[in-house]
Amino acid sequence: MKLFVNFLFLISLSMLVNVANAQSAPASSADSTKAYAGSYTFASGSPVQKYVITAEKGEIYGAADDYGKNKLVKQAKVDTYKSTSSYGSIITFVRDATTKAVTGLTMAIQGSELTAKKDNP
Predict the structure, then answer these.
(1) Fold (topology level) of 29-118
(2) What is this structure's pTM?
(3) Which of 28, 40, 85, 92 could disulfide-link 70, Cβ–Cβ 3.0 to 4.6 Å?
């Protein structure tokens, strides 16, 4: 009888651990890339006015003004991507310190760094 009770206890404990792991599992890459999607506006006079990020099948693409979209490749640094465009710009997304929502981006391109704010964070 004691063995049976121990067995039931172990099964219950195992189920609790599985439920806890399922609830704390990280978001899928498709969900995490959606946070970046949207339109970003650069300051007046910037060589780039708008940058549009789209998320497709867990990957993100960036389009500067009307130059067409390019795939952005994830880099080792958090929230950082490299464009496959001929410029090879580095895009780093900026997050609100409290909410962790994406609020803007910086674009390192040809020795310059441009900053844009997300239109609807």
Answers:
(1) Lipocalin (2.40.128)
(2) 0.73
(3) 85
